[in-house]
Amino acid sequence: MTIEARIRELGNRHRSLDETIRQEMIHPASDSLRVRELKQQKLRLKEEITSLEARAH
């Protein structure tokens, strides 16, 4: 897999997590621990994307 393809894949997962977090926060009984874990996953993905983008240029 090329770096560009990996960046696209990670970007898709990042957007998916963003939507999952948004949906979770809509519910009045949202699980704050789950939301925090999802945000941490999203941050790790963003860091990996940034790292790959730096290597691609």
Structure write-up:
The structure is a single chain. By secondary structure, the chain is an all-alpha fold. The chain has one domain (3-56). 86% of the residues lie in helices and 0% in strands. Helix 1 (3-26) runs antiparallel to helix 2. The longest helix has 25 residues, at 32-56.
Describe the structure using short key phrases.
mainly alpha, 57 residues, DUF465 domain-containing protein, DUF465_sf, 2 helices, single chain, DUF465
**Overall pLDDT score:** 94
Residue stretches low in confidence (pLDDT < 50, at least 5 long) are none
Total beta strands:
0
In whole angstroms, the N-to-C terminal distance is 17 Å
Helix content: over 70%
The proportion of residues in beta strands is under 5%
User: Helices and strands, in N-to-C order?
Assistant: HH
Number of domains: 1
